[in-house]
Amino acid sequence: MSRKRGGHDRLVKPPRAVIDIGSNTVRLVIYEGSRRAPETVWNEKVAARLGRDISTTGRIPQEAEDEALAALARYALIIQDLGIDDVQAVATAAARDAKNGQEFLAKVAALGLEPRLLSGEEEACISANGALGAFPGAHGVVADLGGGSLELVSIHSNECHQAHSLPFGTLRLPAFRAMGGFEQRIHDALSEVGWAATHPGPLYMIGGTWRALAAYAMRELDYPLTDPHGFVLSVEDADRMAAELVEAKPEKLTQISGISEMRAGYLPDAAALLRPLLAEFQPESLVFSSWGIREGLLYSRLDAAQQARDPLLAGIAAFAAVRDSHVTDATLVSAWTADLVEHAKPGDERKRIAAAQLAASLRRVEPNLRLNHAVEWSLDKRWIDLSPRGRAMICAALVGALGRTELPDRLRVLASDEDLREGMTWGLGLRLAQRLGAGTRESLSHSSLRREEEALVLHLDENRAALAAGPVDKELAMLADWLGLEARVEVGT
Hints:
Layout: H1 8-12, E1 16-21, E2 26-32, E3 39-46, H2 62-82, E4 86-91, H3 93-97, H4 101-109, E5 115-117, H5 120-134, E6 140-145, E7 150-156, E8 159-166, H6 173-179, H7 182-190, H8 194-198, E9 203-206, H9 208-220, E10 232-233, H10 235-246, H11 250-253, H12 261-281, E11 286-289, H13 293-300, H14 304-307, H15 311-321, H16 327-336, H17 348-362, H18 370-380, H19 388-401, H20 411-414, H21 417-437, H22 441-445, E12 447-452, E13 455-460, H23 471-483, E14 486-491
Parallel strand pairs: 1-4, 4-5, 6-9, 9-11, 13-14
Antiparallel strand pairs: 1-2, 2-3, 6-7, 7-8, 10-11, 12-13
Helix pairs in contact: 5-13, 7-12, 9-12, 10-12, 15-17, 16-17, 17-19, 17-21, 18-19, 19-21, 21-23
């Protein structure tokens, strides 16, 4: 199939599409950019609710099937018109459990799609791969709540281990609650998943309804970030909020940003499920993930070397490359400013490289927009495997790179004063590196920046001595003053 649009980067890293035929929604997501940290460029769904009658009739209702097939026909045309060759279509609990599920999938295939029906265990493991891709080194239990089922998977050593699928999807929970004895029924089912109760680590929460719970918690706790991905909630707070949500009115929940009308309707039942889940498993905490089955499909196809790539640096490299900012230059700048680091902690070097790339990207933005972009890129844009502390330090670095030392108040909720000071030091160093010779490799390769007792010394080769004039003196003095040092320029071989 020939491509209809795109340039060099699109051909080198062609777009990928995933069609997720779930019990609740039928969704098309198109990804571009880094394979290790793909970026969503199109995300469309219809709430067909294919699994809404499985508990009563055992069938996919005709109107739900019609709505789903109409959406899938649209998706097939979009994919064709965009010239996307790499397409994965998967179907989960509704198609798996319905008496007419195979008939429905045959109609999907007639649209030119090739739907793959996942078993409960396959669905669980693929969702868990999404968590593994999003949280390298994750060790705990994945709880993926869909419309038709709850998938539980143990993860550690970058692999999925035990997996179990339970029929407690959001579309089925109302019927279970109406029967009475709901909590005991959940406890009885969970007692059969003994490995999960003894598995150390957090619960990794996957699914749109869990993310709606995160939105509720973030509002209740006045959390300073906007993206639920990576949000960590204590078990005590989760149980307290679940008790509140069990009796909540959906119409009031929709007033909270991040909770749609559909998810507001599911939240009370999901909260009722969560309480016995917490009591049975007693996890360390809850970690919310925006990566799930769709991203798991992409991650599971990567080879070991690709999976081992740093997703933060991979994502930032793809984002910054279109702004003519490259990781090679960022690494050089990071090395040039290394002597400024006062309180190095494990993982901080990758944050300094990320900050250097984003700071270089800011130069491509109009001056009046740079501060807003600095805050939005660091705090609100979705980066994979970046902690709230890391976001705050990168934000401080970007603000410093703009020549400012006043930070947004919300950063102090995310990181210590020492961490923020460290990030600001990175940023002021980045600014000096940029000012020295417009950020060129030549200017950095023929100079060095180092601490010497009570002085901050900028050393220049003789053939670069002229660079010390103009704004460089000012930036060096500002950085030295910030560090409580004397500024000095030396020229020589």
